[in-house]
Amino acid sequence: MMESISVAVNTADLRKGMYVAELDRPWLETPFVFQGFEISNQVEIDILRSHCDFVHVDVDRSDLTPAQSKVLQDAVPSGSRRPRSSAGKLAPGKWMSRIRDLMLRYDLTRYLAGGQRDASGHYPISSTVRREADRASAAFELACAFHRGMLKKTRKNGSVSIAAARRALRPAVDSILRNPNAIAWVIFSRKTTPEDYNRAVATAIWCVMFGRHLAFDRQQLENLAIGGLLLDIGNLGLPDGFKVKTGELSAEQRKLQEKHVAIGVEILRASQQVPENVMDMVSCHQERADGSGYPAQLKGIETPSFGRIAAIADCYDAMTSATAYSSASAGYDAARELNNMRGKEFQSEVVEQFLRVVGMFPTGSIVELNDGRIGVVLEQNPDNPLRPKVMLLLDKSHQPLSKPQIKQLRDLPPDATSGKALWIVNGHAHGAFGIDPRKIFK
């Protein structure tokens, strides 16, 4: 067995390049979103010192000089070397993943407990996309109906009911916990008909999906849903007709538009029982890691973790939606644009983990394979966002196949030297080739 060397390090002794694998307290009690990161600057060291007395540093994953690594290794007690699975063998988690895939394939999901985290703290898939499709669609519609009514009441009363929002969004959270691919499918299938689409609800769903990936608990996931739904509630305070303006905003119009954040915060302050992290989402969803956002020009982890989740989820849905200001980008193009923002508008690790959730080719998006066939993405592969499960609908001449074919790209060779190799060469806009994803499960 190979060994992973983890060292308990006093935070007074931290330095750049060390990979922080564990804390002396729960991660959610700190501003850090991700469970494990390499220290890149003094700010991160200062924050770790303000929250923790010591942390566990993974020597193998740290970017240190040989001399620095040796000093750490020499400090390791004999009992702190942790076994790592040998290459070529499936770790226990991989075996469980294979077993779960078989259960899903043969429709044995009634034996799986939805919404309960496994031994590693993560949420397993407990339903197939096909079985979950109707429930996901109903949950999306319920959230949309609530949002429409909420806007009317807020315009009249100047406040929102957090308790009512929580109740309305619970079915969506439930569906995401069972299988996030189904409701992601709903989102992209409805983007072809703007009258059936709701950006606030979709953003709430992206937030919950990201939180599910990060293994947040149930209450935190519900808070993510509420915050995502309310990100732009402050638009109610903008002049009538402002939001339907077409073309580029002038400097004066942009300054007016930016006021929606402060207005949204005031609406929440007038409301009751607003969780602090929901307030963080509304107040910080326009902040950017490089300080180019607003209203406070926060940088990096100065933005609370829920604010960082809200920011990238809102940005992604804006990219993939047609608005008065721009046309919709294909999911693949939006993912590439997010990649271009790594280390600038968004922290690199935030982009990396978010793209593991939505995929380079999002569920429900239309893709083209290297052999010319056209299909729709059915499910994501978190281990490789470029190799999702695809349902093929058109042949290489772009004529309908006699029967749809399902290909699990992760199980096929990506190497062009193999005759069975398949890979995605392009992602297409919503509605391309006349494909309506909503009809597939009918």
Q: TL;DR?
A:
By secondary structure, the protein is of the alpha+beta class. The protein is built from 14 helices and ten strands.
Description:
The protein has helices at 42-51, 66-74, 92-105, 129-157, 162-178, 180-190, 199-213, 218-230, 251-257, 260-269, 276-284, 305-319, 331-340, 348-358, and strands at 2-10, 19-23, 37-38, 54-58, 81-84, 366-369, 374-379, 389-394, 400-408, 424-428. With 442 residues, the protein is an alpha+beta fold. The protein has four domains: 2-84, no CATH class; 92-126; 136-358, Hypothetical protein af1432 (Orthogonal Bundle); 366-439, no CATH class. Strands 3-2-4-1-5 form a five-stranded antiparallel β-sheet, with no helix packed on it. A hairpin with a 5-residue loop joins β8 (389-394) and β9. α8 runs parallel beside α11 (276-284). The longest helix is centred in the N-terminal third of the chain and has 29 residues, at 129-157. It is globular and about 65 Å long.
The CATH architecture name of the largest domain reads Orthogonal Bundle
Count of DSSP-assigned helices: 14
Task: Provide the residue-averaged pLDDT.
Answer: 84
CATH topology of the largest domain: Hypothetical protein af1432
Strand order of the largest sheet: 3-2-4-1-5
Number of domains: 4
Low-confidence stretches: 78-96, 103-113
* Helix-strand sequence: EEEHEHEHHHHHHHHHHHHEEEEE
Tell me how many strands there are: 10
- Classified by CATH, the class of the largest domain is Mainly Alpha
Radius of gyration: 23 Å
Taken as a percent bin, the fraction of beta residues is 5-15%
What is the end-to-end distance?
50 Å
Structural class: alpha+beta
How can the largest sheet be summarized?
A: 5 strands, antiparallel
What is the global morphology?
globular
CATH superfamily of the largest domain: Hypothetical protein af1432
Can you give the helix content as a percent range?
40-55%
